[in-house]
Amino acid sequence: MDITNFNIAFQLAALLFTVFFLSFFIGEFTRVTRRTIIFVVQIVICILNLLVDITSVIFITYYISYKLLGYEISPWLNFWTHFFGKAYIVLTVSFLYTILIYVANACHYRGIGKKGSKIINVVVLLLSVGAIMVSIMAIIEPLYFDGDGYHAWSYGTGTTATYYYGAFCAFCAIITFSVGWKNMSHRERRPIIAFLVTQGGVAIIQSFFPHILILGLGNALTEAFIYKSLTVHEKNKVHNDTINSFAEIIEAREKNTGEHIKRTRKYVQIIADELLKINFDRKLVNKDWTNRLSQAAALHDLGKLPIPNAVLSKPGKLTDEEYALIKKHPEFGAKIIKDSLNKIGDPVFQELAWEMAYTHHEKWDGSGYPRGLKGSEIPLSGQIMAVADVFDAVSQKRCYRAAMTLDESFSIITNGIGTHFNPDIAKAFIKARPVVEKAYMVFIEQQNELEAAEAQAASKKPED
Asked: Looking at residue 415, what is its pLDDT?
């Protein structure tokens, strides 16, 4: 009975621990997303699982004690012992399944390509069918109790299937994570790795010490790590919303550039993806870095905020004083990022945003501004941004000139190899021309639709 009391106390502690994180979740999260829904379902299942486990331990203890003492097992004790034993198996299967679903969603949400997506979908389908089958087996199959005076174990097929299903879930979670981990930031990966290791470690310990029920602790710790993963994900959402807000302000200030920020972000992502394909600087260029790079690209013109609209939107030639002011926008942007984004919680992103804002007008031969950096003195992020920025600038119409054709725009990039641009970066962009052209045509269609809508709205406006 001492072990039984210990197990009940242990499970109660795990239950309180889980409820604690649920209360934090209810007070902190207001947005309903797929991941928050999965977390709510999962933590409710975890709480029910712990409650049923505690109740099951109590009934099983009485059941096996009566058997050892030779007492007759009453129908109600027999019914409820079996009921809670089966319920525990079904809830355990459900909990393992929701863990897999959370891992799949966390690895899948940002997009991993058709092949990786198919692998994850097949894994989820197999586990879904498996969860249903094991649950049915647990409900139909009778439980056989045995014990040593401290605990009782059920050796039915449903119980055995649950063990195998748990192992299969762990195996599939590892496969899913290995397929999608590159699409996640380091901060998102760590909690998921932690709860996968925790679940595996607890399961191994439980197999060596079956009388001490620590699976509840493993489940509670899993919820803690998933809660951490969810908070990181939500912070990333807020982080992205902040970036987008800054981008919208910049676009509103400089209307003549249209969707410049959206386009340059896309071109930066295309260049980064191409660099990934050729294993360019593998120590630096990885999926995590390229995701942040694309986000940071939205802030490269942040320094134009302090510049008057009259200068930004001037249709004619700028005076020397006006041009000198425009040339200060990299310094303005770097200062704003340093002063305003230092509490955003992502130093890698802040560093990339600072580099791109400050150095996107530097040139490979050292003739750029504001510092006249040359070659590798220019951060890689700034080198990439320079290609994307120039291409978009020449391929789009401005209030003071017409847009160049795609051939002419690519010629500008080609002619700038070794002078304006890092040769490797420029060649990667040129190599990705089919992808660039596809994105360009989408942007043109969107722009035409927007202009047509504005023209239609203007035609319906009543005359004064």
From this structure: 95
- Cβ neighbours around 295 below 10 Å, total: 22
Note whether 61 and 151 are within 8 A (CB): yes
Percent of the chain with pLDDT over 90: 19
Q: Which residues of the chain have pLDDT under 70?
A: 1-10, 13, 17, 21-31, 108-116, 143-156, 180-188, 203, 205-218, 233-241, 247, 250-258, 281-284, 342-346, 399-400, 451, 454, 458, 460-464
Q: Provide the pLDDT for residue 183.
A: 61
